Amino acid sequence: MNLTNSHPDLKFHYIAHTSCDFIDERAIVSGSEPADTYLGLLYTMEDLAVYGYVTNTKVKFVVVLSIPDAVIKNTDIKNLFKKIHNVYINQVCNPFYNLDGKKSIVSKKFIESIDAIGSMSSDEVVSP
Amino acid sequence: MSVLQTASSAIITPFFTSLASGDEVQGSTSNIGGGSNGGNMSVNLKPTHVNESCLEFLMMEMVDLMYRTTVDSENDKEAVYYKLEMLGYQVGQSLVERFTRDRPRFVDTLDVVKFICKDLWSIIFKKQIDNLKTNHRGVYVLQDNNFRWFLRMSTESGSEAAAKRSVPYLWFPCGLIRGALANLGVVSVVIAETNSLPQCSFQIKIAKS
Fold first, then answer.
1. Which of A56, A71, B29, B127 has a C-alpha 20 to 30 A away from that of B160?
2. CB distance from B104 to chain A under 8 Å?
3. Which domain holds residue B93?
4. Topology at the third CATH level for domain A8-126
């Protein structure tokens, strides 16, 4: 699938949309066991692994990683999602952000924090 | 006008966060936790202590402020109700976002309402709802026999007059509940009533899906 020439991020938008379907499948709660927020590895595509996490407020986080040679531990990904969730919580508590507005987040601080998480080295990912 | 409202909710959310994480320090100078980004990414955050009296004064003044600054005399009551309720709505959303973080996911609507009765009420008022009734068809009644924000309210003309005058002070908690429910995926209408202070009850009507 050669989408990268037209728009570099288009591939990731596509991945995010297909992830939503996978998340909806996994998120159906079975009656007996309490559901967890971390959904684990959703699927893999070419050289990318996609992980999902859904919050109690029905917000879905999708992380796309290029598969490295080393094994990725579940706890590392969980910590990653925890950090992302914290940044999101700070954004929601901003009184100037309208949660019901259906607009994408344009706050500079939020984007910078997410970029900082994205560019973290593998050592820093381990600590919560 | 909207700047005032957003500024008020900016102050209120860190109040609740601090009350949840630290102890109250009555009667001394307070240290209000930082601005609109009340939370923090690091785990070793020392709890910020907030004076509970400040919060009560803020709540009282907020209702007064809305009455003073609402100019339109015809739709006075509606406008004040709308402003206070929307303020509570946004604070409720933020609170729920922050405090449902490490919980397992909710199973159904009753679970959500129970969370509000137990966890959310403990965070805001340091006690749980005293009585929860439901007709199992989408109507819940939450009864608080000792509403914390009413503990220091009284009038000289007795309890009935006091109950009538305290109604505007219930609009913000109504919004709080509605915002909390909305962010958890439950659309509702919340009405509050009180017969005698400090007792009050909130009626939640959940929209049929």
1. B127
2. yes
3. 52-206
4. Beta-Lactamase (3.30.450)
